[in-house]
Specification:
With 418 residues, the protein is α/β, with parallel strands linked by helices. The protein has four domains: 112 residues, Methylthiotransferase, N-terminal domain (Rossmann fold, 3-Layer(aba) Sandwich), CATH 3.40.50; 96 residues, Transcription Regulator spoIIAA (2-Layer Sandwich); 115 residues, 2-Layer Sandwich (Transcription Regulator spoIIAA), CATH 3.30.750; 54 residues, Beta Barrel (OB fold (Dihydrolipoamide Acetyltransferase, E2P)). Helix content is 34%, strand content 22%. It has 13 helices and 17 strands. A hairpin with a 4-residue loop joins β14 and β15. α7 packs parallel to α8. The longest helix is centred in the C-terminal third of the chain and has 24 residues. Bound molecules: iron/sulfur cluster.
Length: 418
């Protein structure tokens, strides 16, 4: 009787990718996967430490797994396992706390130990496949714990990346989302190969319909990348460019490598070549020293940037980062108020961006059937569309006409044939 395993993943796209790699390693060793929160002989919990909320959620999932599976092996890995193994080791019922290299070594009997050695052939439970091409970061933004946990920039070989993309296309994935800890730093530790080279070569892989960049720094949007985005139907006209703050004084304290002027100029350069590009972003509220005036500047810059989506992060102090030692922390009520104000603006801007497509046709990769007879999926500009249609469309690219717009999604009609 084969053993069963279950996976819980917290945090970013890179974590989800690495869980898929662990999944394939365990299946290769004869394990059968059961749904998360089901009974399993082995539980692998891939944790997150990017915020205190990520850590709290990780502990919550660990406790739940232990409670649901008395006597099962609960293995905890991920960034939190690297950041504070003792804290996790002390949780009742945890069998093993191992950082990912240790876990890879265990699952491959010592054959491999680097995260970059991990590969995937499938991306279960998703219609778009994440493809990790890079790990680590050397930027040391003052609030960020990641460089201390994931180490310096490391990039996968181009051959590996292309082989993996072909495996995923063979599996039927039509959209590939390039991901990494600091994607734009791809190639910095290699000679003569850059992110642009990866994109150009991936476009040559037959049957890849879309390539999406998960996130880039505004400073990494080169003219060549903009040209490629403007000329190739495969490269999604959607850029996720973390802004973090709209105030130069705060950006300096964050050790971010651009000014507000640089950032907005990047958007202008893209808009001058790419039709209706979609810009999503991350904004942190309540960074130490952020006064009401600094926050006002952030609101103004978000307006000027006309974002299609804003992910809002209340500042979360990370032990060992320079920002953790900075004074001028916001009171919780202030933090909540700034988050509320920015959320309202984010909704307004999201609605404004989606209104550009009212009455227009957009192409959607059909991902889910949230309700009987209603399908949903994302366009190349990362607009979520809901429309009536048959299940047979799941996993396919279809053209729909936008009939109604809302901050979070659009309603549309599909007139196609099966
Ligand atoms: S670029 Fe900055 S925020 Fe992003 S992972 Fe690196 S240090 Fe963290």
């Amino acid at each position: 009787m084969s053993k069963t395993c279950a996976f819980i993943t917290l945090g970013c796209k890179v974590n989800q990718y690495e869980t898929q790699a662990f999944r394939e390693l365990l299946k290769g060793r004869g394990y059968q996967e059961v749904p998360a929160h089901g009974r399993a002989d082995l539980y692998v919990i891939n944790t997150c430490a990017v915020t205190s909320a990520g850590e709290a959620k990780s502990r919550q999932e660990i406790r739940k797994a232990v409670r649901l599976n008395p006597g099962s092996e609960v293995v905890v890995t991920g960034c939190y396992a690297k950041a504070d193994p003792q804290a996790l080791d002390s949780l009742p019922g945890v069998g093993l706390v191992a950082d990912k290299s240790q876990l890879i070594g265990l699952l491959t009997q010592g054959e491999k130990d680097s995260l970059l050695d991990l590969g995937i052939s499938d991306f279960e439970g998703h219609s778009r496949a994440f493809l990790k091409i890079q790990d680590g970061c050397d930027a040391f933004c003052s609030y960020c714990i990641i460089p201390y946990l994931r180490g310096s920039v490391k990039s996968r070989g181009l051959g590996d990346i292309l082989a993996e993309a072909r495996r995923l296309v063979e599996r039927g994935y039509r959209e590939i989302v390039l991901t990494g800890v600091h994607l734009g730093a791809y190639g910095r530790n290699l000679s003569g190969v850059s992110l642009l080279d990866v994109l150009i070569r991936l476009m040559e892989v037959p049957d890849i319909h879309r390539i999406r960049l998960s996130s880039l720094e505004a400073t990494e949007v080169t003219d060549e990348l903009i040209e490629l985005m403007a000329s190739s139907p495969k490269l999604c006209p959607h850029l996720h460019l973390p802004l973090q703050s709209g105030d130069d004084y705060i950006l300096k304290k964050m050790n971010r490598r651009y000014t507000v002027k640089d950032y907005l100029y990047t958007l202008e350069r893209v808009r001058s070549k790419v039709p209706m590009p979609s810009f999503s972003t991350d904004v942190m509220v309540g960074f130490p020293g952020e006064e009401p005036g600094h926050f006002e500047n952030t609101l103004e810059v978000c307006q000027a940037a006309d974002f299609s989506r804003i992910h809002i992060f209340p500042y979360s102090s990370r032990k060992g980062t320079p920002a953790a030692a900075m004074s001028g922390r916001c009171k919780t009520a202030q933090l909540k108020e700034r988050k509320r104000v920015l959320e309202n603006l984010a909704q307004e801007l999201a609605l404004r961006y989606k209104s550009l497509f009212l009455g227009k046709e957009i192409e959607v990769l059909v991902e889910e059937e949230p309700y009987e007879g209603v399908l949903s999926g994302y366009s190349e500009r990362y607009i979520k569309a809901l429309f009536s249609g048959p299940k047979e469309l799941l996993g396919r690219m279809v053209t729909v006409k936008v009939t109604e717009v809302f901050p979070g999604y659009v309603k549309a009609t599909w007139k196609g044939e099966l």
